[in-house]
Amino acid sequence: MGPRPRKENGSGKPKNEKAEKKVQKLKEKNVEENLKRIEEAEAAAESSEDSPFLSDSGEDDDESLSEDNGSISESGSEQSKLSEDEDVVRAGDGGNPTGASDDDTDHSSGDSLGEGDDNDDYHGEDSHGGSDDSREVVEESDSSEDEVAPRNTIGNVPLEWYKDEEHIGYDLSGKKIKKKERQSKLDSFLASVDDSKNWRKIYDEYNDEEVELTKEETKLIRRLLKGKAPHADFDPYAPYVDWFAWDGAKHPLSNAPEPKRRFIPSKWESKMVLRYVRAIRKGLIKFDDKPKEEPRFYALWDDSTPAERQGLAYIPAPKPKLPGHEESYNPSPEYIPTQEEINSYQLMFEEDRPKFIPKQHTSLRSVPAYEKAVRETFDRCLDLYLCPRVRKKRINIDPESLKPKLPSRKDLKPYPTTCYLEYKGHKGPVTTICTESTGQWIASGSKDGTVRIWEVETGRCLQVWDIGETIEEVAWNPLTEFPILAVAAGQDVFILDTGCGSHEQQKKIEELLHVEPQKATDDSDISASIVNWVRDDRHGGIRLKHFKTVTKVEWHRKGDYLSTLMPSGESQSVLIHQLSKGLTQRIPFKTKGIPVSTAFHPTRSIFFTATKKDVRVYDLLKQKLIKKLEAGVREISSVAIHPGGDNAIVGSKDGKLCWFDMDLSSRPYRVLRCHPKDITGVAYHRSYPLFASCSDDCTAYVFHGMVYSDMNQNPLIVPLEILRGHSSADGRGVLDCKFHPRQPWLFTAGADSLIKLYCH
Amino acid sequence: MDIDGGAAAAEGSTRQVQVRFVTKLKPPYRAPPVSISIPANLTRFRLSALVNNLLQSANADWKQEPFDFLIDDELVRMSLEEFLLAKGISAEKVLEIEYIKAVAPRKQEEPSLHDDWVSAVDGSDDGYILTGCYDGLGRIWRAAGVCSHILDGHSGPVTSVCVLKPKASESVVDRIVATASKDRTLRLWKFGAQESLDQPNKIRAFKILRGHTAAVQSIAAEPSGDMVCSGSWDCSINLWSGNASDTESGLVSVKKRKKDGEDEEPQSEGEALSTLVGHTQCVSSVTWPQRGTIFSASWDHSIRRWDVETGKDSLSIFCGKVINCLDIGGESSALIAAGGSDPVLRIWDPRKPGTLSPIFQFSSHNSWISSCKWHHKSWFHLVSASYDGKVMLWDLRTAWPLAVLDTHKDKVLCADWWKDDSVVSGGADSKLCISSGILVQ
After folding, report:
1. For chain A, which domains are there?
2. What's the pLDDT score for residue A277?
């Protein structure tokens, strides 16, 4: 079987190819129509031509053998090819959506084959090479069809694009393929009527030619249409050959009884199922109903790796800079730096200096070796694999957005902002101030031992008392009709008549303050009293002699009781005095720790004592501890109660300001760390939603502190203003601050012996 | 025109403007009404020198006089060029510049010394100045340093004083003044206008008005002098009869002073005729510009207009700041000027419909404004005193003060016009300063 089969092969193959091409052509046109036509024509032809179409497989076999005498392997290959075609045709018939892709692949394979025809495919298999040769010869010699027109190369594009053109496409050399003269419909019809073989002709739009199917091809198509194997010699019902001979077997392959596990449902499987069911119920497994849509377009040259990449993140190495014009051996003169520029490079920092200085060379030959080559390669290597490349996770957050949403300060006006008035007169640091409840006067006490009363509106000092000891605290009686002043200095508390009242009021005050000395003598006789009530003739009032230094004095809201605080008084550290009866009593409960400050509840009979660590809230009627407020600060220095009574602020010696919402919790609702130094005083405004703190850092802070009547709404705290102006003296700054009772004004007492009034 | 102006600015000093000087002043001040070309970068000072030159050329024995210049009823306070640019006035036309005599003090009188802070001053009578002082005394000054009467009687600092205008019909020689004090009383005083003594004459009040329960902050007399109203820290405004002869109603008890054994004129006590209630805080200032209306300012941030007959407030302006002083005047005596706890002197026009926002705000002071007064005859001129120790003269036609009087060493507590051409002011340095020679036409 030397040359002959090859010859056969060669002659057989083009035929097959032709058939394929035709089938393709068929498919490319509206296939169904043509096939119907063919079927009809065949039905007619069967009667006329004695074709072996209806013969059974055996005849077919004979025919095929007689026709191409091919070997079995040959026919096998043909079969496979044909089966491909069958697929194609079926696809065309069925018109199912996946057909498009199949079409493409088939077409491309056909094309490649076709190209193989024209391009000399000498590098293929040897046998094929020979066949190609022979085929070319055959083509030149007999086949009229293939000679007719060169192949169209427009590819798989809609043919409508060329509908209005003179040409149907381009041949391999790029020349236009002219359209053939089209016969008129009538002529073509007449021709078709005349031509008995017309039913076998198919017009190929793609190549603009008529193709006549051969008998074999029509046979093939017919078989395909019937759903049979395309080749007649394929027997789908070949007899089954049982290669394993059972007859002589003594023993079965396995005589073991069927194991039980084959009949019991698998536990493991049921577990798995259970697990899946649970996961589905929990929503861990989700069924995506929608098919995933793949992006239609993608960046072809995109370097970035897809995001779903797992494991260590791939960080591409930095790309080396591509050489530019300046790195040419003979760059344009504008790239070459002048000598001055080169000199100026020397002045630059090492890092800013340009890495490469362009130079001009007459020829490439004269370019010297690049002296930094090794160094740069080394650096590049470092870049590539020695230096760890870390992707910096940078979160771009607008710092503004992190700020809590607070109302603007403009909307929270009025609040104190500017200092317009100063009250000058004290000779030493002003330790304490207190505003009278109408807002007409303020009283102040100083380290120089004087208590002064000032007129608020003009800053005039109305009255001066020289007590002689450092004044710890001054407090106006909250009742407007009793303008009397309680002053804590040293171990005494003085109750002074300011003389600010009207005549009737003065009389009452005198009565009130006059009754005491007699009682006081009684008390001193009993000597059970802790405190001596003595008439103080020098200053015109009462003097309550304590046994320890008094640091705080505070009036009850009704103006009859006042509390005094002796931090070192141990069990008697907090005393409550009743002015009208001239009585003194201890608070009826034990306090723990050294008290720092005390306060009456603004509306109810509740008493606050602040120790260095916490604030204790006592009920005066039930005589028991209600609550303990833990500030969590180093040392509490001052405490103020909101006029509503449910909130308190606590200032500490580490500069923290704690706001307690006593309904909410015993822990601070908010801690404001605003002062760098000790907070010396805190204050609430009586009517405006303002509070303030003052500190030894010579500033006072004003805050907006809105307490809502709605229990669900937390207090709103907004820092408003830093009031500066005081100067430091002996390391102390602002020693006390108090709000004006009716205006949004703040008084601050400074260690610089000034009192300042900050107005809105 | 803006382009022209811009070009002018670019060219600098070479730019010329055609101007004509006009004036409403009397003939000796009238310059020839010819249009002249002057450089555009002239300022007010150079303009003034120019007008003086013009006048001197017409009149050989001309004395130099400072002038102020008005273009379109706006005082020129920068160079002419900038002014035209800012106002968008064409520099192509002949510019009419009106000149007026500059309003600035020409003379500073010797300060009249008090024993304590001078808290109140009233210069509404040309014959004398009435001052109130923190030592509880009122004083009558005939001239700078010439004190003719001392009003002795208050036990607290005098906070406010006012002069009751003598009625035109009865040409009494006696003058009546009223003072208010922190001792919760008002006192009416009578003294002879003609008396002039070497030694100040101590007089006592002929009438004591009691009724306020807190310090009286302000006092104002009705234009006819029949009644007095007062504002106090007890948040009320009391109306009192100010008539000396009307003793039947006002007299409650006549008692002789027994302290000094000698006989003295009887002191009658009066009670408030009515009380205007409405303010919620200290009434810091009251004025009584017309017979039927009282204006009051309070620390509750409001200014109210009261109808005296009904006792109701018919207008209420909220300012947002504490108001310390108030005066009514200006154009047809309708504008309200007030200052308070901030350095801004505000002027409202209550006739303006719709809005109650100030029409002018002058903010050259540095501290609280303690006093403001309209000039009696001018529509435009104001004086204001502030705690920053300065007294400023204002003209509504410019945003800058006309003059700043810096004679006080401490807070200025009160200021007023006197004799139409002087400003009197008293302060915490216990001085009454008189700046005279202010020519307001």
Report:
1. 3-226 (no CATH), 410-759 (2.130.10.10)
2. 94
